[in-house]
């Protein structure tokens, strides 16, 4: 799987050469070179964002890619970098990482009409950004607008809760808990595990059993009868069953 890093400021291709000249980390659309083979890729992201249209171009490249795109947020995916992140098919976030979303902003010079026009442009950009968030999280634009206006920072747990990430990296899957509904006695999983371990050991008590002729039904009847007797004699005491 090819790994592509999205690090530093998100910039346009024309701006990238200036950043590189001064040794400033950056990512531009052309630097996100996806394989022509269509193989799966891993996008590793640690960026505070940058130029919104460059971020949109990278997002579009990732969404249009025919192979599977997995993204790892290893530090920060903020602003335009969070838009890039939404282009991945699956998103995993480090337990120590953050995702940040907010409204677009810019500089403007001019009279009141120029300022009103700039405000309209920014509102349009906000709506475009929301489209990427909506596709991933399936949340309403009204809810996303509130999150953006509040400049929302999300840790790993909240990012997964809100749908901006699919899972937290390094989390071990918990073993399933078996739940039973039975009127009889069911051996606890812990006991079965110990018996299985004992059976696998090379011990002097281990014997070969022909399970085709083993009187299993007869043994089960005897155990059930013994349990019933034990329950009557010790109805006020917890019962335990040991098989040797």
Short description:
Helices cover 41% and strands 18% of the residues. The chain contains eight helices and eight strands. It is elongated.
Structural description of this entry:
The protein has two domains: 2-168, 2-enoyl-CoA Hydratase, Chain A, domain 1 (Alpha-Beta Complex), CATH 3.90.226.10; 179-244, no CATH class. It has helices spanning 13-21, 52-64, 80-85, 112-137, 141-149, 156-162, 189-200, 216-233; strands spanning 2-10, 26-27, 41-50, 69-78, 90-93, 98-101, 152-154, 167-168. The two termini are 51 Å apart. Helix 2 (52-64) links the parallel strand 3 and strand 4 (69-78). The chain is built from eight helices and eight strands. 41% of the residues lie in helices and 18% in strands. It has 244 residues and is α/β, with parallel strands linked by helices.
Which segments are poorly predicted (pLDDT under 50) over 5 or more consecutive residues?
Answer: 237-244
* Broad CATH class of the largest domain: Alpha Beta
Number of strands: 8
CATH homologous superfamily descriptor of the largest domain? 2-enoyl-CoA Hydratase, Chain A, domain 1
Order of helices and strands: EHEEHEHEEHHEHEHH
**Total of helices:** 8
User: What distance separates the N and C termini?
Assistant: 51 Å
Rg value: 30 Å
Would you identify the CATH architecture of the largest domain? Answer: Alpha-Beta Complex
- Based on Cα principal axes, name the global outline: elongated
CATH topology of the largest domain: 2-enoyl-CoA Hydratase, Chain A, domain 1
Task: Give the fraction of residues assigned to helices.
Answer: 40-55%
